[in-house]
Each structure stands twice: as C-alpha cells, then as structure tokens.
Amino acid sequence: MPRRHSRFVRIFGTIVFAVVTVLFAALIVNAFMNGGKPLTTLVPKGPSAQSIQNLVLPVFAIAGVVFVGVMGAVVFISWKFRETDEDDPEEFPEQVHGRTVLEIGWTILPALILAGVAVGTVVTLLELNKKDPEAIQVEVTGQQWWWQYKYDLNGDGNFDGAEDITTATEMVIPAGRPIEVTTTSNDVIHSFWIPGLNGKKDAVPGLHSPLKLEADDPGVFRGQCTEYCGLSHANMRMLVRALPSEEYDAWVKNQLKGHEAQPSGELAKEGRKTWESLCAQCHVIKGINDAKIKDNPPPLVSGVAPDLTHLMTRGTFAGSIFNLYADVQSTSPNSNGDQLGTDPTDVAAAGNPGAALTGGKVDEATVNRTALEAWLRNPPAQKPMYAQGGRGMPNLGLTEVQIDQLVAFLTTLN
Ligand code: CUA
C-alpha cells in the first residue's frame, strides 16, 4: 500500500487551512468596523437601517454557528478517519443508516431555524413599510446618470406645485424626521441606495416604489446606484445631507425662491445670456426658464437635465462625483482633489457649501473652479456618456471666455 500523502502535503494543507481561516475571520471583523467606508451596510445611521441591522446580526450569528459547526465537523472527520498505511484496503466501514432520532433531529432543527428567520424577516419588513403620516414626501427619479428629488411640501400629492421643491444630485433632509421616498425612473432601471439609512429600492420606469429614510443625526450619507444602467452607472451617486431642523427649514425657504433678478457683475450677466442661449434647452433655473420648459419639454431620451436653480447650495455636481467646493477644511486624505473623500460623515469632504447651503452668500474662494471649468470644457471627458445620443451632457465646444462667464453666473445660484 503506497503512502497517499507525503508529510509535506499534510503540513502545507494545514497551513493553507489556517491562513484561509484567519483571513476570513479578519474580513468579517473588518466589515463591521466603520473606518472610512462610505458605503458600509453594517453601520446603521437611522431607524430603518437599524431594524435591518437588528435582523442581520442574529441571522449572521446563527449562520456563523452553522458554518463553523459544519466545516469543523468536515475537517475533524476528514482528519480522524483519513486513510493510513495500516488500513486494510479490503475492509469496508460499518454502514450506519436509519437512526430515527438523528434523522428527525436534523430535519426539525433547520426547519425551526428557518422558521425563526422567516418570522424575524416578516416583522422587519412590516416595520420598514409602516406608513408615517408625519413623513416628508419625496419623489426620487433616476435618470442616466443622476438623481432628481421632488418634495411635496404641502402634502397635496402633487410634486410640481408652487409650494414644492425640485432639486438634483443631493437630497437634503431634517435629521430625526422620517422621509417617505418614492422611487421611479425616467429611462432604464436604476436602484436607489443609501446604505447608512436603509436598504436598496429599485427605481423602475412607470412604477412608484416606497422607501423610508430617516437620519438619527445631522451628517452626510452617501449612496450609489446599484442597478447597472449604462455607461456611467458607477458615476451615478447620491448624497443625503441631514440638517438640524432649523437649518432644514431655512434650506426649504431658500429653495422655494427663484432667480428673477439679473446677477450683479458684468461677467455674470454675460454668463446668464450664454446660459439662456446654450444651457436653457435642457436645464431649468426657476425664475428664468421654468415656465418655458414646462410648455416645451426637452427632446431628450432621459427627460430633463438637473435643475440648476440652487446649484451652489449643493456640495457636489455631475451625479455627485465632483466637489463643487474645494475642500479647505477637511483633513481626509482623499478629499483634497476633485473626487470625493471616503469618510461617510465628513461634511467637508462632501463639498461644503457653507452659508450658501441655506441661501447665504457663496464664498467664492472655496468654489472648486477647476472642477467646474473642466466639466464645462468637455463633460463627456469627465464622465462617460452617450452625449450625442441625448444621454448626458454634450460637449458644447464652449470658448474659455464663455466658460469664465458661465462660472461667474453659476456661482451666483445660491
Ligand atoms: Cu443608475 Cu446604475
């Protein structure tokens, strides 16, 4: 009888097994730590995310016990009953079957575990879907490749009234108050996901799907479209900014305003003219072209482009992939360039509009002109798009003078 395994193979196998076990354990421990992971699902920041967590942890623990038990038994049995040189190759092991107690046991135990998980799941689903009459209603529309937010502030079921708000890219909410989001889409299927606040909800054309969000504390909560939706799917991000109640009220008050008045400053005035002749076909600025565009919706595949009325109240632009404000305060290592930082709660890293957030003056020194100019110069080079097919912003071939004018005008939009 030849030796089946050399000593080397056995030692090597044991080492590989030990290394894999340690790496696996490290992976699990790491997953539960926040450490600058903006899209972690395991650090809840609101009641909905918390109820999901309350279900995930026990289910994960049970699955862990089963996993360790089964794998441990497999390893133990493989080791204990391994073939050795002393074994008689003719000998057949004793056959064991028909042990009633064992068979009933391993049928009932998994059934009980699954029943427990099912009850927990149903309870959690009911909790997540409970309606709240106090909730703020927001319609979230996915577009290739950015998100539009419409607030029904007076609760009349209409999102386009004079007392309602339309904004894009960033959703501003009051901390500690429930928001009832309805997701839908203008083109293909997207998926709305703010992992700190709740699970995912697909945004499907023609469907309106509910999702409850609430942030325990003020802060910034990032998200990412999670349904493949074309070229810039990975660049379709979202950002929820939760504010203290009074600040949210000030934000709302400012968002309701339009920009009827001409901007002061020659450059900005020229910029407004350029905007009206080139950008106003797709983008809306309340007080300038909102009435006109309502009568003649732009002939785009994906509907409209982001509403720019209060552009400078947002910290990010272009599907929330670029900072609109240069990051002067943040200490995050990744947040001093155009790209966003990774700390989920770092407001400065998410572009800090400062006083402009609630309609105050834009601090021109902090505006990220480099990113804004690069975007205007050639948008498809900054973010992959089928711009010529009507999806995303085309390269308008703007001159440097026009870009300067536009930046001067855009930075007045607080
Ligand atoms: Cu939208 Cu992926």
The second-level CATH architecture of the domain at 266-410 is Orthogonal Bundle
Biggest β-sheet strands, sense, barrel: 5 strands, mixed
Per DSSP, what share of the residues sits in E-state strands of 2 or more residues? 5-15%
Query: Over the alpha carbons, how many angstroms does the gyration radius reach?
Result: 28 Å
Number of helices: 9
- Structural class, by secondary structure, is alpha+beta
CATH class of the domain at 266-410: Mainly Alpha
Topology:
Blueprint: H1 7-31, H2 47-80, H3 100-129, E1 136-143, E2 146-152, E3 165-168, E4 170-174, E5 179-185, E6 190-193, E7 200-203, E8 209-213, E9 219-224, E10 237-243, H4 245-255, H5 266-279, H6 290-295, E11 316-317, E12 322-323, H7 369-377, H8 379-382, H9 400-410
Parallel strand pairs: 1-5, 4-10
Antiparallel strand pairs: 1-2, 2-3, 5-8, 6-7, 9-10, 11-12
Helix pairs in contact: 2-3, 5-9, 7-9
The chain binds dinuclear copper ion.
